[in-house]
Specification:
heterotrimer, A alpha/beta (397), B alpha/beta (354), C mainly alpha (84), A: 397 residues, alpha/beta, Peroxisomal Thiolase, Chain A, domain 1, 12 helices, globular, B: 354 residues, ACP-like_sf (chain C)
């Protein structure tokens, strides 16, 4: 039951790169991924910048070796999951008891919203194959089937913390000896449904977002997928794992359906719980990958909770959403890969466009890309609608 | 370590919300779409909060409250839900407006309520529960994954009481679309005759069932949740049979130790074939009860099945309306619940009387 | 103001509330008043746009405008260009 769970590899596709090395290059070159919409057809095309994956569905289908007409959510998932597996040093997937646990919030909505216009005009209208993979779980199965994973497949949807919760469930599956390896993380493609939904909340920035900046006015949506490969202690002994998933916790803010409590109750409980499980003291944490969406509400709640837990020793921290945008169900997975890699490579990621110190906080985010840090412990935060707050801790050993 | 089912709550097309003996007055329908019998939800949710809630949220919150009430718990340590479709009604409302109004002048309420974690989030909000909160959305495994997560966390020792449940709703849009996939009967059938139906297709159902699980028992506790297992896309029936043997063995029993088999037969002659094969191979003389003629087919229907199985252990009797085959022994000690959803998602839950 | 009250009830799904029971100066957001929240404020912004063609770009203006039915009505009178 107390078996350790290791990160053997990771894969990411996002608005700043089609694989992990490309994403790291974008951080190094200070090249965020926000731009006017190129692939998502929306009347808001010229109003809200988004961080799209820079490839059309035909190109993605080619990379994924899947049909072009399936949901972009599945294509993104497949590409990142395969990269994750290939980076792990594990051989043929059929040699292991493998689970696939993927978070997402939109499922096949990108196809459903195309279907819906024809369907509303006529209940027999619209092509059925467009809604065949509407369900979140269906996206996971398309990828699991392609990879040949059958031992355990599961999908989690807790809004913006989905990907992080997938890692927790995956780690527990390994600890309970249900499987030996889990590809865990999340995926989400941009859809008009989510874009318009966030627009009704009036939290989309019309400029590139400015997380943890005093002048921030909202978030930019992004898309992508990110997965880590979790392995058991015994498998890790045969590999060169990146680091260990040493702690995790999930708490509920129980304050409001969409807003965070002013004192960041849920955020604090998640971070504290993750540290407690890992046995790590706050001052031992070298870097925090912030949830850092860039909304007024999130950043102040998250910041206050960090202040309460970490003062007076603040680790380096940054919101990589200032590059990738907020990728919703994928963000916990993508940021888990960045965090695990931070330990492996000693990276501190930059927080783009930070200029003005938040008056509520005594700390500010890192603004430059740097390597060579001896990071023993890294924390990754993912907070979402419904009060869902999750925090992960990665450790070198 | 034992995990006890200390309380249950169920909203379904049967009169399950009001308590009393199991299926004392079963409702029979002659239609292909069953709707829940809705209690007065205002007894659990105040007017200010209820105005935004769609049916699936109300039935989830109600079933959760019922299960906590019977367990005598006010605040669980964790809330875990499973829903395949999520909040379909609000999703449909927002999509329709988005299409009809060309992405202009949309309002936030339906969008906020459309996320799959709305029910778990609302329960946490209403209870003021800061604990672990998770939502599984994996088709015919959504509820089973929620149970498994709960079991793993209880065994870990980080929680003592967990609220776990499954729910799904039908909307006009979802029913129209699912009907086009050809999964329902073409003509209405009498629900009490559904399981002997000679053709393909089933009937649509909906509902919510919640369970207050704990590491210690409560005064009215009848059963322990001994084990849960899932099997994805078995290649043939032999794999299902082998999986059940292994599952029983993992929990130190054999088919002979099972007193009652509860199956997810849904009246589709092709899909029910698997239950026939399994019963013939492992449980040829066992009594069998079924539940989808009572609640309809939906991806989290196994939650209704588990609710019914727990009540059967509590009452030590199988109600007439649920009997599919044979007579259960006097003492019903162990029940195996076997369900599959569309032949792809097979799940197994083992209950033991305590 | 009677029209506005009916529109508020419709927009916020407050069907349990009779329009005449909302006082012109009753606070909309405090606990003693209607007890509305930030999601309702966003709904009211859309109401102004739909019925009165008034756009509010910054949600932080909401609390000032939506103090009561009277402050809403005054804001509408002062800012209305075309009645939709």
């Amino acid at each position: 039951m107390s078996e350790k769970v290791w990160i053997a590899g990771g894969g990411v596709i996002s608005g700043i790169g089609l694989d992990v090395p490309a994403c790291i290059k974008s951080f190094r070159d200070m090249q965020p991924g926000m731009a006017a919409m190129q692939y998502l057809p929306s009347v808001h095309r010229n109003t809200f910048p988004v961080a799209e994956v820079k490839a059309d569905n035909a190109t993605l289908a080619d990379m994924a070796r899947m049909p072009e007409n399936i949901s972009r959510t599945a294509l993104l998932s497949m590409i990142a999951a395969r990269e994750a597996w290939q980076s792990s040093g594990l051989d043929d997937i059929s040699h292991y008891r493998v689970g696939f646990v993927s978070g997402n919030t939109v499922g096949g909505m990108d196809k459903t919203e195309d279907f819906f216009g024809d369907f509303l005009a006529n209940p027999r209208g619209g092509r059925l194959h467009q809604v065949a993979h509407h369900e979140c779980g269906s996206i996971t199965e398309l990828v699991a089937d392609m990879l040949g994973i059958r031992h355990h497949v599961s999908t989690i949807s807790t809004a913006c913390s989905s990907g992080a919760n997938a890692l927790m469930y995956g780690a527990r599956l390994i600890r309970n000896n249900i499987v030996d390896v889990v590809i865990a993380g999340g995926t989400d493609s941009l859809t008009r449904f989510t874009l318009n939904g966030f627009n009704t909340l009036m939290i989309l920035d019309q400029q590139p977002c400015r997380p943890f900046d005093d002048t921030r006015t909202g978030l930019n949506l992004g898309e992508g997928a990110g997965y880590v490969v979790l392995v058991s202690d015994s498998l890790a002994a045969q590999l060169q794992p990146w680091c260990r998933l040493s702690g995790f916790a999930n708490a509920n803010d129980a304050y409001h359906q969409t807003a965070s409590s002013p004192d960041g109750t849920g955020n604090y409980l998640a971070m504290k719980g993750a540290l407690d499980m890992s046995g790590v003291q706050p001052q031992q944490v070298g870097y925090i990958n912030l949830h850092g969406t860039g909304t007024q509400n999130n950043d102040v709640s998250e910041g206050i909770a960090i202040n309460k837990l970490f003062a007076p020793h603040f680790p380096a921290m940054s919101s990589t959403k200032s590059f990738t945008g907020h990728t919703l169900g994928a963000s916990g997975g993508i940021e888990a890969v960045f965090s695990a890699l931070a330990i492996k490579e000693g990276i501190i990621y930059p927080n783009a466009r930070f200029e003005h110190q938040m008056k509520e906080l005594p700390f500010s985010p890192a603004t430059a890309f740097s390597t060579g840090h001896d990071l023993q412990h890294v924390m990754s935060n993912s907070f979402g609608f419904g009060g869902n707050c999750s925090s992960l801790v990665f450790s070198k050993a | 370590m034992n995990i006890y089912i200390n309380g249950t709550g169920c909203i379904s097309p049967q009169n399950t919300a009001q308590g009393g003996p199991l299926l004392a007055a079963p409702r029979e329908y002659e239609q292909v779409r069953l709707a829940t019998v809705d209690p007065d939800y205002k007894q659990w949710i105040d007017v200010k909060q209820i105005r935004r809630m769609s049916r699936v949220v109300k039935m989830g919150v109600a079933a959760a409250n019922l299960s906590l009430e019977t367990a005598g718990i006010t605040l669980p340590d964790a809330i875990i839900t499973g829903t395949a479709y999520g909040c379909l009604d609000d999703t449909g409302v927002f999509l329709t407006k988005m299409v009809n109004q060309q992405e202009e002048m949309l309002t936030p309420t339906a969008f906020i309520q459309s996320t799959h974690n709305t029910v778990a989030g609302q329960i946490a909000l209403l209870l003021g529960c800061n604990g672990y909160n998770n939502t599984f959305v994996h088709r015919g495994f959504s509820f089973e994954n929620a149970l498994l997560d709960a079991i793993m966390i209880l065994k870990e020792g980080t929680a003592k009481h967990i609220l776990a449940g499954g729910m799904d709703e039908i909307t006009n849009y979802s029913h129209q679309v699912l009907s086009r996939f050809g999964i329902y009967k073409k003509a209405p059938v009498k629900t009490m005759e559904l399981l002997n139906s000679p053709d393909t297709g089933t009937i649509a159902g909906e509902g919510a069932a919640f369970f207050a699980l704990g590491v210690t028992s409560a005064p009215g506790t009848a059963a322990t949740l001994t084990g849960v297992s899932t099997l994805y896309k078995p290649l043939w029936e032999g794999e299902v049979i082998g999986h059940i043997m292994k599952f029983l063995e993992d929990h130190h029993c054999t088919p002979a130790d099972i007193d009652l088999l509860v199956t997810g037969r849904n009246g589709d002659i092709d899909q029910d074939e698997m239950y026939e094969e399994v019963a013939a191979a492992l449980f040829p003389d066992h009594a069998e009860a079924s539940f989808k003629h009572l609640c309809g087919e939906y991806p989290t229907a196994a939650a209704f099945g588990l609710w019914m199985a727990n009540a059967i252990i509590a009452e030590q009797a199988v109600p007439e309306a649920a009997v599919f085959y044979g007579h259960a022994p006097k003492k019903i000690n162990r029940i195996l619940l076997y369900n599959h959803h569309q032949g792809t998602h097979h799940s197994f839950v083992l209950l033991t009387a305590c | 103001m009677a029209d506005l009250k009916a529109q508020i009830i419709e927009q916020l799904n407050l069907h349990e509330v009779a329009p005449e029971s909302i006082g012109d100066d009753q606070p909309l957001f405090s606990k003693e008043g209607l007890g509305l929240d930030s999601i309702d404020a966003l709904e009211l912004i859309v109401l102004l746009q739909q019925h009165y063609n008034i756009r509010i770009a910054n949600p932080e203006e909401g609390p000032k405008i939506f103090q009561s039915v009277r402050t809403m009505a005054e804001y509408i009178t002062a800012n209305q260009t075309i009645k939709a």
